[in-house]
UniProtKB/TrEMBL annotation:
Pfam families linked: DUF8155, DUF8155_C
Protein's name according to its UniProt entry: Peptidase M23-like protein
InterPro entries attached to this UniProt entry: DUF8155_C, DUF8155_N, Dup_hybrid_motif
Organism: Haloterrigena gelatinilytica
Gene3D superfamilies the UniProt entry points to: Glucose Permease (Domain IIA)
Residues of the DUF8155 domain: 4-150, 156-298
Lineage top rank: taxon: Archaea
Length: 303
């Protein structure tokens, strides 16, 4: 059974993703990345705790070597007493240089320390907390093995026709002005797949992604066309992305294009901030603010 993350936990953060990661800890939606709001200079450093409880342990862990990140990341283990059904579980939190130590009590929203960039990040990834949850009888130090997570919020799918104007850029990415958040600061939204569910994941630069839907609306795949093996095709604007088994998508061998030219991919997540828009990962093809683009997903043989 999945552990439900309550609304009061998720609403502490501006964005989240269960699938937008290349690491096995996120397989089947068994971990979540939580993105706090940015500071005035555009950077994010505060690491508000998603849970309440007692710190069991903190330790440095080796991260993959990257020129833009320190050699070590950090793991914080917290024995939870809330919120909701998280009571009695152990939280594994990464990407925070801890300002807490074993025996400290933390309340939800308290600072755990300062967010750090780690070698686990691709260069286009913003600072965030990685969180997984374990039962008391599970090994809390293994990277994989956390419990599957469910969302205790009403998530709104936003239709997007694949077009937009570049609103902002970084060295490796560009953010479009579409789709537009209809109620910034309140509802969490995401890009709507053709089947009505919200897409999550790095398409196709990570191995797979996921599907979310409005809370309390039944099975993730009810009513979808099924293939012979029980999987369901997932499309965006008629372009097939892959197939879903349950809520987890295996991408097809596809390429994302901008105005007909291939880029690394499309970053898909859930957000409630006004700056929400399609995020294009394009280190090989810089885009300019104000540029009008059309995004399509094509089989790689059609490149």
């Amino acid at each position: 059974m999945a552990v439900t993350l309550p609304a009061e936990l998720l609403r502490q953060y501006q964005r989240f993703s269960l699938y937008n990661s290349p690491y096995p800890a996120h397989d089947e939606g068994c971990a979540i990345d939580l993105y706090p709001g940015a500071l005035r200079d555009g950077r994010t450093s505060a690491a508000p705790s998603p849970i309440s409880g007692v710190v069991r342990e903190t330790r440095a862990v080796t991260a993959p070597p990257k020129p833009y990140a320190p050699e070590h990341d950090h793991l914080i283990l917290v024995d939870c007493d809330g919120p909701g059904e998280l009571e009695g579980l152990t939280a594994r939190i990464l990407h925070v240089e801890p300002a807490v130590e074993a025996g400290d009590r933390v309340e939800r929203g308290d600072s755990l320390g300062e967010l750090v960039r780690a070698g686990f990040f691709a260069p286009w990834v913003d600072n965030h907390l990685h969180v997984g949850l374990r039962r008391p009888d599970q090994n809390p130090h293994r990277a994989s093995g956390s419990l599957p997570l469910a969302l205790g919020i009403d998530l709104r799918p936003l239709e997007w026709d694949g077009t937009g104007t570049v609103a902002s850029t970084g060295e490796t990415y560009a953010v479009l002005d579409a789709p537009t958040h209809p109620d910034p600061g309140e509802t969490f939204v995401g890009v709507r797949a053709d089947n009505g569910r919200v897409l999550d994941g790095g398409l196709p630069h990570y191995d797979g992604g996921g599907l979310h839907q409005r809370a309390g609306t039944g099975s993730e795949t009810s009513g979808d066309e099924e293939l012979e093996d029980g999987a369901t095709p997932v499309c965006l604007n008629g372009d097939r992305l892959g197939v879903a088994r349950g809520r987890t998508i295996a991408w097809d061998d596809v390429v994302v294009t901008v105005n007909g030219e291939p880029i690394t991919g499309l970053s898909l997540f859930c957000a409630r901030d006004a700056a929400f828009g399609a995020k294009l990962i394009c280190p090989e093809r810089p885009l300019e603010v104000g540029q009008r683009v059309r995004v399509r997903v094509r089989p790689s043989l059609e490149r």
